[in-house]
Amino acid sequence: MNDLAPLFFDIDLVIVITASLLVRSGSAGAAIFAIGQGMLIDLLSAGFLGLFALLYVISYLCLELGARFFDLRSVQGQFLLVGLVVLIRELVLVGLLDVFAFEVALSPSLSFWFCASAFFTGLIAPSIFSILRRVETRTSGEGKEAA
Amino acid sequence: MNPLKRIRTYWVWVIFVFVALVLISFNAGKRRSWTPVEQVVIEITAPMQRFMRKSAETVERVWLKYFSFVDLREENLRLKKDADDLRMQNHFYRELVSTHARLRELLQFKESIRSPMAAAQAIGRDPTGWFESILIDKGTNAGLRLNMPVMDARGVVGRLVAVSPNYAKVLLIIDQNSAVDCLIQRTREKGILKGLPSQLCRLHYVSRAADVAVGDKIVTSGLDRIFPKGLPVGEVVEIADTPWEFFKDVRVKPSADFSKLEEVLVLLKEDPLSSPPQRSK
Predict the structure, then answer these.
(1) pLDDT over 60 (residue B63)
(2) Who has greater pLDDT, B276 or B111?
(3) Does B214 fall in a domain?
(4) B-chain residues within 8 Å CB-CB of A104?
(5) Is B20 a domain residue?
(6) How many domains does chain A have?
(7) pLDDT 10s digits, B108-159
(8) For a surface tag, which of B45, B103, B235, B244 has the fewest beta carbons within 10 Å of its beta carbon?
């Protein structure tokens, strides 16, 4: 596991976009995006179908719950909540893999890479939020002009 | 929050968790191919994945070309020496092959019928990092079917676990879900090769009395009816013999280099698991 630990450094854009959708499009849009992305990952990966769908639905639930305690419209809120949800997602994944009899040990190095993933995903979250907001503003502006 | 809206949000949670749990419970422990709807999704997303991989490869190639100029002379000398060594080895193996052919004739062994093969390119790796699979650019249109063995020039790579008209998913032998019935070439001891989290494999069920040493070659036994007998799989790199265990802990380094998988060969044979085993009369 130690040799491969950097493989588990994962900037989770799905969670960032789900959080952004939760703010802009509401619960249903975010939930559909999360489960859709999870199912697509399940199709492309060798894991069992539904694993990542469940994982991203859980992430969405954590975002929805966390949004009551953190302000997803502020930079600090985005950093903290997204980072926290990425960390939870990694831990739930390890738990689920353990349930399905995978040999996964939550070693210190793996924990370090999980924390690094959470930190850096949280760090880029405000930028992604800003880009998505601009894209949305531009597309809605073009839509109005066309109308 | 408006109570009505809150109830609606709870329902969204309940429905999606239910959908995910249904999916996971119906598919846990099973391995099945893509459904027609999933095949459509793969057909749409795989070209994008191929594009991303090609772009990454182009950047990597340009980068490596720059570095390749740096130590060109040393590399040239080393390659010449390697070529001489390989020429000697080639001569040695030709001798072995001719000896082998003569012995086969002597023992009146029938030539086994070689399966035709299809070459395919790896266009994407498992997106999760937790499982070990690749996506290849050939599917049912090229004659590929479920459970066909996949190899590269060095040895066994894996088997097909899902196919669509133009793409297929290969479960690599280093995945923890994979199992290959194997033999230790020198002593003919049997075992089941399974993946480990660390690009190595473990040969399970090798008894403590078995004669196995570091460096022993592992080949397929043919008993799983997926991989033909005698294909190279890997080499024993570590053995642990714990007194209170029934079996030895044998670690195997696969022959195939999974970090550099680009072209693979698919052995075109019927899916052996779709039909019951034939009994000899």
Answers:
(1) yes
(2) B276
(3) yes
(4) 197
(5) no
(6) 1
(7) 433 444 668 888 888 888 888 788 899 999 999 999 998 999 988 778 999 9
(8) B244
The reported pLDDT for the residue numbered B111 is 43
Structure-block tokens of residue B35: 């459904």
Residue-level pLDDT at B158: 93
Q: Do B176 and A102 touch (CB under 8 A)?
A: yes
Residue B81 lies in a domain: yes
Q: Average pLDDT, whole number, for chain B?
A: 81
pTM of full prediction above 0.80 = no
The answer to whether residue B195 sits within a structural domain is yes
CB of A15 within 8 A of CB of A117?
no
Out of A7, A40, A44, closest to residue B124 by CB: A44
Per-window interface: B 33-62 vs A, CB < 8 A: 34, 38, 41-42, 45, 49
pLDDT tens per residue across span A24-64: 888 888 999 999 999 999 888 888 788 899 999 999 999 99
Residue B275: band (very low, low, confident or very high) from pLDDT cuts 50, 70, 90: low
Low-confidence winner among A66-70, A80-84, A107-111 (lowest mean pLDDT): A107-111
**B132: distance to nearest CA of chain A, Å?**
6
**Which residues in chain B have Cβ-Cβ distances shorter than 8 Å to A57?**
16-17, 19-20
pLDDT higher at B148 or B33: B148
Window 144-173 of B, Cβ < 8 Å to A? 161, 169, 171-172
Domain that holds residue B94: 71-106
Q: Tell me whether residue A53 is in a domain.
A: yes
CATH number at residue B221: 2.40.10.350
Interface probe for B, chosen from A1, A22, A43, A110 (most Cβ of B below 10 Å), is A43
> For chain B, what is the domain count?
2
Q: Residue A127: which domain range?
A: 10-146
The last residue of one of the domains, among B106, B126, B158, is B106
Selecting from B9, B16, B42 the residue whose C-beta is nearest the C-beta of A57 gives: B16
Residue A85 domain-assigned (yes or no) = yes
- Whether residue A80 lies inside any domain: the answer is yes
